[in-house]
Amino acid sequence: MDALKIVFVVLHLLGLLAIVGSVVVRRGVPTPALVWGARAQIVTGLVLVGINETGDGDVNHTKIAVKLLVALAVAACAEIAAGRERRGQGNPNLVHAAGALAVLNTLVAVLWN
Question: What's the pTM?
Answer without folding.
Answer: 0.89
